[in-house]
């Protein structure tokens, strides 16, 4: 795998050293962060391009570090993955996301919630059993929770992943393939999986209107996804023209800074109450 080859080419560079210290620092402190509730969730809406309603929201984790401030997930998710901390991290995120979902429900905000999960979370049934128990405990309806899984998580061990995803799907979770197009899977492989949604990676969306290749990829992905009975989400929409193009292609859901950036829960509520979307 190309990802792993990187290690073979490491040359001494003081910059790498600095990164190594930084990583060690983050690794040691991440455990504390999870235990001491230094993590926080931001929420980014998904807009239905059929009804122009905000029907879903994605939970995105941040680390509110006491000295370093708000640390973005790209700086610590890979560390958590490499240091066996994804079980603890995803459980924290899942619990927090479900609590927010319940709080919104009781305030009359009916919105489904999406949670990002990692490869480690579908290697066995430990995390699935946790999220299933929360669903039962809170009597959540089917499809209240979407679980977003990247292609890579599935490619690593397709057989096991298929088994665990089937288990989650049969337990009433909606499954979504995240970052579609950046991994190694093909739609033929995805056909084997019990997924209901495909998220086109933002790298294909960002320059969509200027790039004919991206248009061809996006159009054919939407068409094939629909033929397979999947709904399509486009992420990384930064302008109205791109949104309209995707709408004209039959894409069901849209996400991106043009609609809203990820926001803390109370800012998201304020945004929702004054937005033109319902
Ligand atoms: P993702 O799941 O693909 O999430 C989308 C990322 O794109 C988010 O970055 C979001 O802020 C950003 N984004 C959304 N709209 C736009 C746009 O219009 N333009 C641009 N340039 N960017 C946009 P964020 O929140 O920094 O998250 C980065 C990645 O970290 C996520 O990518 C996801 O892979 C991972 N991540 C975040 N939260 C969690 C989590 O709770 N668990 C796991 N396992 N991974 C997470
Ligand atoms: Ca995602
Ligand atoms: Ca994505
Ligand atoms: Ca991504």
Blueprint of the fold:
Elements: H1 2-5, H2 14-35, E1 39-48, E2 54-65, E3 69-71, H3 77-82, H4 86-106, E4 112-117, H5 126-137, E5 145-150, H6 151-155, H7 158-170, E6 174-180, H8 187-190, E7 197-200, H9 202-205, H10 212-227, E8 231-234, H11 240-248, E9 253-254, E10 263-264, H12 265-274
Parallel strand pairs: 2-4, 4-5, 5-6, 6-7, 7-8, 8-9
Antiparallel strand pairs: 1-2, 1-9, 1-10, 2-3
Bound molecules: ligand C2E and calcium ion (CA) (3 copies).
Ligand C2E binds at residues 44, 60-61, 72-74, 77, 93, 116-118, 178-179, 202, 235-238, 255-257, 262.
Domain EAL: 23-276
Protein name: EAL domain-containing protein
Features:
10 strands; 45% helix; disordered N terminus; 12 helices; 20% strand; alpha/beta; single chain; binds calcium ion; eight-stranded mixed beta barrel; binds ligand C2E; EAL domain-containing protein; 278 residues
Give the strand tally: 10
Q: Widest sheet: strand order? A: 1-2-4-5-6-7-8-9
Share in β-strands: 15-25%
Radius of gyration: 19 Å
What best-fitting shape do the alpha-carbon axes yield? globular
- Structural class designation: alpha/beta
Helix content: 40-55%
Number of helices: 12
Overall residue-averaged pLDDT value: 90
What hetero molecules are bound to the protein chains? ligand C2E, calcium ion
Order of helices and strands: HHEEEHHEHEHHEHEHHEHEEH
Q: Give the low-confidence spans.
A: 1-7
Major sheet: 8 strands, mixed, barrel
In angstroms, what separates the terminal alpha carbons? Answer: 44 Å
């Amino acid at each position: 795998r190309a990802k792993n080859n990187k290690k073979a080419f490491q040359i001494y560079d003081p910059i790498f050293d600095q990164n190594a210290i930084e990583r060690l620092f983050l690794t040691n402190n991440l455990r504390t962060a999870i235990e001491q509730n230094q993590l926080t969730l931001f929420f980014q809406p998904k807009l239905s391009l059929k009804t122009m309603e905000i029907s879903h929201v994605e939970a995105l984790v941040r680390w509110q570090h006491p000295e370093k401030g708000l640390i973005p997930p790209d700086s610590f998710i890979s560390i958590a993955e490499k240091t066996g901390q994804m079980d603890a991290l995803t459980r924290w995120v899942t619990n927090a996301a479900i609590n927010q979902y319940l709080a919104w429900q009781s305030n009359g905000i009916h919105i489904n919630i999406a949670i990002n999960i990692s490869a480690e979370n579908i290697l066995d049934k430990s995390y699935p059993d946790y999220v299933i128990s929360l669903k039962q405990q809170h009597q959540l309806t089917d499809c209240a929770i979407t679980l977003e899984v990247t292609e890579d998580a599935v490619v690593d061990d397709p057989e096991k992943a298929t088994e665990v995803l089937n288990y989650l799907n049969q337990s009433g979770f909606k499954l979504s393939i995240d970052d579609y197009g950046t991994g190694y899977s093909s739609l033929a492989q995805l056909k084997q999986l019990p997924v209901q949604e495909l998220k086109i990676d933002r790298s294909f969306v960002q320059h969509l209107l200027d790039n004919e290749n991206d248009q061809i990829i996006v159009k054919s992905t939407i068409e094939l996804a629909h033929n397979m009975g999947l709904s399509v989400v486009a992420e990384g929409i930064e302008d109205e023209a791109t949104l309209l193009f995707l709408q004209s292609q039959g894409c069901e859901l849209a996400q991106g800074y043009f609609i809203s950036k990820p926001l803390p829960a109370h800012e998201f509520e304020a945004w929702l109450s004054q937005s033109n979307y319902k």
